[in-house]
Amino acid sequence: MKNLFYLFLAVTIFACSTDSEGNPCIYEPTLTTQAATDITETSATLNGIISIVSENCEVPNNTEQGFVYSTEIQPTLEDIQVNVNGTNITTTIESLEPNTTYYVRAFLTNNFGDFYGNEISFMTEEEIIGSCDGAPYLSIVYGTQEWTVENACHITYRDGTLIPEITDNAEWSNLTTGAWCYFNNDPTKPRLYNWYAVMGIHDTDPNTPNKEFATEGWHVPSDVEWTTLEQHLIANGYNYDGTTTGNKIAKSMASTTGWLSSTTLGNPGNDQSSNNSSGFNAFPEGNRSDNGSFDVEGNGTFGAEGFNKHFWSSTEDDTYSLDAWIRRLENDYNNLSRLSFDKWYGFSVRFVRD
């Protein structure tokens, strides 16, 4: 059984025996676990000091050192282990859970035994769904659902893994993994995502679990959830003419600016100042095509800016395995349309609360 002498800032353990000449072996590791720094929602930097006094002892075999951590107190080598060499040790751990308390100890293990430092704890920051400027996304409750009314614009999956930005047309067209781009590859324009990013498909190994695209507490709406929103808006008088039958809700969902002009009453491009009575605020930001040579309007790799607005759902089209269901608003149509598009297109994304 190990004898552990815990101090406030450090731990010193003595391991004693004798060498071949009868001189006592004095092995005194001192392990100090220091406060964690640079704490975020999903990562933290661990710090510590490991120093050893060794007299008349053989060089220990199979030495490992670093940190052990867990969400339970007094972590051991049976928990998560991170090896770090040196005296002043530091390392950044990732893929942590937001708003969670972790316990950490420096450790040293070899044929003399397993040695641990003092325990420290830290709490990761609370993760909130946020817009690109760091403020929370705006959201509105529609019946039994709560929807974000701003487009997704983050560049990492929920666990902090980066979603790559792809600007090259040929590379984009051959993807079967998640990616994003700016419209027209212009950083002043909104971000668009392919369907693989929406579904968290981050590598080409079919056995690898998918990641989460939406932040904690939210998810990308399914085709059925889009239909629920549509039916709620119709039933609650958001058709442009105030009726509660038929799908004429485009104007109530469209932003009050940005649409190409339409002369037809009830379309988003007509009298734009009267748009957006639902607060959904869909802005016609355009899209990126699937094969890098044309878009849905036939205008080139990027197009349809001002013409229409596309939103991904999380639902595949069972008839066409390379397609998924979307919703579209257009400047000169009064309905929210349901269409199936290739998964390589670059469209916008909204979230629904879990």
What count of helical segments does DSSP give? 4
Largest sheet features: 5 strands, antiparallel
Domain module tally:
2
The share of residues in helices is under 10%
- Please give the number of β-strands: 20
Describe the protein's architecture and organization.
Helices cover 7% and strands 32% of the residues. The strands form 7 sheets. Strands 1, 2, 3, 4 and 7 form a 5-stranded antiparallel sheet that branches. A 4-stranded antiparallel sheet has the order 6-5-8-9, with no helix packed on it. It has helices at residues 169-173, 195-198, 223-235, 250-253, and strands at residues 11-12, 15-18, 24-37, 44-55, 64-70, 80-83, 88-93, 101-110, 113-123, 139-142, 145-148, 180-182, 191-193, 218-219, 287-288, 302-303, 308-316, 323-330, 337-342, 352-353. The protein contains 4 helices and 20 strands. A hairpin with a 2-residue loop joins strand 8 and strand 9. It folds into 2 domains: 11-123, Immunoglobulins (Immunoglobulin-like, Sandwich), CATH 2.60.40.10; 139-353, no CATH class. The chain starts with 10 loop residues before the first strand and ends with a strand. It is mainly beta and 354 residues long.
